[in-house]
# Entry
Amino acid sequence: MTTQQVVAPEYLFFEAERERQFMTGSEAVAEAVKRANIDMAISYPITPQSESMHLVGDLYAKGYLKEYFRGESEFAVMAAVAGAAMGGVRVFTATGGPGTLRAFEMFPTWAGARLPIVCAFLTRAVNAPLSIQPDTLEMAFMLDTGILMFHAENAQDLYDMVLKAFVVAEQTDVHIPVGVFADGFFVTHTREQVAVAPADLKLPPYNPYYAPVPVMDMENVPVRQMRDPFVMKSNFISYAAHASWQQEILAAQERARKHVRRYLGDLLDTEHAEAPVLVMAAGTAVSQSREAVAAARREGLEVGLVKLKSLRPFPREEVRVLARQARALIVPEFNRVGWLSREIKSVVEDTTKVIDGPRVFGGMTMPPELILAQIRRCYA
Amino acid sequence: MAASEYRVLPGPEGYLPPAAASMGVELPQRGEALVEGRVVPEEEAMLRIAERLLAARNPVFFPGPTILWAWKEGAAEKARAVLGLMEAVGARAIPMPDYRPKYPMINPAVEINPNHPNLTIWHNRIDVGVFVGVHCHYANVALKIIRGGTDCYTIALCGEMGHEDAMITLRDVDVAKLERLTEVARALATARLLRVEGSGAGG
# Structure
């Protein structure tokens, strides 16, 4: 194993002197993994969206991980990752697009089993005709799986969020998976400056004995699911227990808020939040929106930007307060269904303020002019 | 009802009560505790716990696996401290030795299970129940079911961060904190005895 010094998470995240390196988003994932003191990584590397798990394999070869292997499919990987986490080790994987959907059954299973798995989702189109191009449609399906969801705008976010995700996921009062999402190609395949902590530092190891469920317990649910109900019985007691169990997963998401605020700064960031027109976005749509907002402000239009970093937990109160003082909320998205727009409408008091779009999908880029045109229409 | 107005009170609350965390109740910080969904200083919560336990008709502790088995250094000492507290308040124990749903039927006289804790509470007519040494997930699953279907007043003495779904919860409970709670209970019991004697009830 490569020798690294264990340091406090706060030191690694906020105090250690950082060096700027020019790297892709996939490389930023690997740089985070390098410092995350991960026991095991499991990959299905055929997914052509990202080379991140190939790079994690290289880290194993260099001695940064105790174990690394490839699964037979995305589903097999996500099941193996669950087994590793139930065994009490810190585990990482990544997927994207059709890989996400092929493995889908495992995500609510991870959450229900209180497994603090961290997975990077490098999103891409999922619908026929087959495409490997960027699209965030898969995130719509992931919203109600019970996992926490962070959305990276760029490679810097991706590095920081993957590293911090372990610390949030492993809190005793949270202890559910974290998905760190980044828009494929736009983030994974482009290079930018990323400030990283020294590579000879790493997080403290995961201690499974602080988990809210027993580690490696072959006699109890969630590890042993089939011998006893819930699945095998049809009676009110089983239903009530399962319902309470599901509620507890949602409660864990709520408890994550304070940890997300502590480590990610907040659930969202704002620029010119007092403006009457706000552009609310997540992922790379934030970058395009920032360009549009800057152009609009040069034209004298009062417009602000809201960057949503955490989608689960969703910044419910924060968005509601911002929406209250605004007269229009523009929601640009890289998917056809507009899941972010739906999320925002579900929490604001006046849904008529929410402007759906602009939206692009199937791999299309989103020119800032599209968003700028919408801003201008708000002032027409 | 606004989320911040939610109170964690004895039930029966209804068919499917919500998780208190989803209603805006947040876990306490170090040195704090929760009483019925409100953050209070830890010492105040200890007094409320002692009052509840001493006034109870049938107080019962539900010790869980982390103190039932000497699986790590300190577990036996913590179990002994819990026994001291039980003695001080006149409570008995019904253990939660594991978390498997018990089928075809649990023996509610001898154990409690997180998936159907109401059966044990109903069978034994428990009016105050104390969770201690139970893994957090299972305590939370059980506490909601108890609040939904019984009128039991629940207390959680948590070694980690506490439980919003209990009516009173302490966090970071270790041997020292258990001994302090025992002192508070003994002092309160003595004061109540003196009040009774002072009122002439003792003849």
